[in-house]
Amino acid sequence: MKKTLILLSMVAMTTVSMAQKGTWYIGGLAGFATSTDKDPNDKKTTMSNWTVAPEVGTFLKDDIQVGLAFGIGGAKEKNDSLDLSESSFLTPTLYGRKFFKITDNFSTFAGLYLSYIGGKSTDFTNTPETKSEQSGFGARIGVGIAYALSPRFTAVGQYGLFGFQSVNNKVNGNDAGSNSSFDFGVNTVGGGTLGQGNGSGSVFNIGLYYTFITK
Q1: Could you tell me which of 18, 29, 17 has the C-alpha nearest to residue 67?
Q2: Total-model pTM
Q3: pLDDT digit string, tens, across residues 98-117
Q4: Is 114 exposed, middle or buried (0-12, 13-18, 19+ CB in 10 A)?
Q5: Which end of the chain is more exposed for a tag (fewer CB within 10 A), N or C?
Q6: Peptide bond between residue 128 and the one before it cis (omega within 30 degrees of 0)
Q7: Element (H, E) at 123
Q8: Mean pLDDT across 48-61
Q9: Residue 177: is it exposed, middle or buried by C-beta count within 10 angstroms (0-12/13-18/19+)?
Q10: Could you tell me if residue 57 is left (phi over 0), alpha (psi between -120 and 50 degrees) or otherwise beta?
Q11: What is the pLDDT of residues 128-137, one digit of tens each?
């Protein structure tokens, strides 16, 4: 069995050391991951997923940040050249963060993330193929650290501490019930920052933030 994993993520927002009331930023996350399993007969099963989450936000106070992110992504599974399944999701997220300054360059923060969860998937292994749709909402609390590298760039690490989500399901256009879940430390947070409920799936994410308007 052979496994390969590739993960790329980048976030752009604002520096903590220069953060002031009225500061605006744009940014986002981009991530891609793939894994390959090979059985004894040399047949390969490949799974891949990607995430893009542009965002915009501002500081209401020097230590209070609010923003809006749009998480968009998808996944696909193949057995050699045969498609097994594919899925896509959309998770617009409103978030707020409270920063706690430790030094001039180093801060910690806690955040609340509220998301709409929408997605669809297709299972090609069934005859005929099965199409599913999901819609619902999620809430998550996360924590993180931020280190200012320059007046405009900051390295930020985020951890999805715990969250809740409730999703309604449809299969081939028919109501398939709903499900709710509570989890601890299983997803990244923020513009999708990372993907509320359907993000990149990493517990810890590191990114770069950038300021485009300062007061």
Answers
A1: 29
A2: 0.73
A3: 999 998 889 999 999 899 99
A4: middle
A5: N
A6: yes
A7: strand 106-123
A8: 84
A9: exposed
A10: beta
A11: 888 999 999 9
